[in-house]
Design goal:
- The chain is of the alpha+beta class.
- The chain has two domains: 1-35; 49-143, Sporulation related repeat (Alpha-Beta Plaits, 2-Layer Sandwich).
- The protein has helices at 2-30, 100-112, 134-143, and strands at 52-61, 80-84, 90-97, 119-124.
- The radius of gyration is 27 Å and the shape is globular.
- 15% of the residues are buried.
């Protein structure tokens, strides 16, 4: 019985010390005296910067476009990717760019070809579109690790 009591006292002391140390560490962190040596990568829609790529979307339609549709006139030599959005729209994208800047340059070329609604879209390495505003994606992308 006395042995159990000693063990309980030792545990209580350890816990009290651990809690006190934890409170002191928390206070120090709040005051900026403790900094982490390891930085966690910023996640952008669940992906790290290295897992993101960009495409240029040139159109989205309620119905699938035929291969001989006049819409394709300016991109006949391009590899067009079709995907169906969660709302049932047929999205048509071009390219695979590791940087936003490269995709943005391509977007300008598509607009010059007459695809005035073209814009850059971000994707994760599992080919899923990142459904965040591009301003937020770029803010995180430019400050991510």
């Amino acid at each position: 019985m006395q042995k159990n009591l000693i063990v309980l006292l030792v545990i209580a002391c350890v816990l009290q010390f651990a809690c006190k140390g934890s409170k002191e560490t928390t206070t120090a962190m709040q005051q900026g005296r403790v900094t982490s040596q390891m930085s966690e990568p910023v996640l952008i829609g669940g992906y790290t910067k290295a897992q993101i790529y960009f495409k240029v979307q040139i159109g989205a339609f309620k119905k699938q476009l035929a291969e001989n549709d006049a819409f394709w006139k300016g991109v006949l030599e391009e590899e067009i990717q079709e995907e169906i959005s969660s709302t049932g729209l047929y999205r048509y994208t071009l390219g695979y760019f590791k940087t936003y800047e490269a995709a943005e340059e391509y977007e300008k070329k598509m607009k010059a070809k007459g695809y005035h609604e073209a814009f850059v879209a971000a994707y994760g390495n599992d080919n899923r579109r990142i459904d965040l505003p591009m301003t937020e994606i770029l803010r995180l992308y430019r400050h991510g690790y």
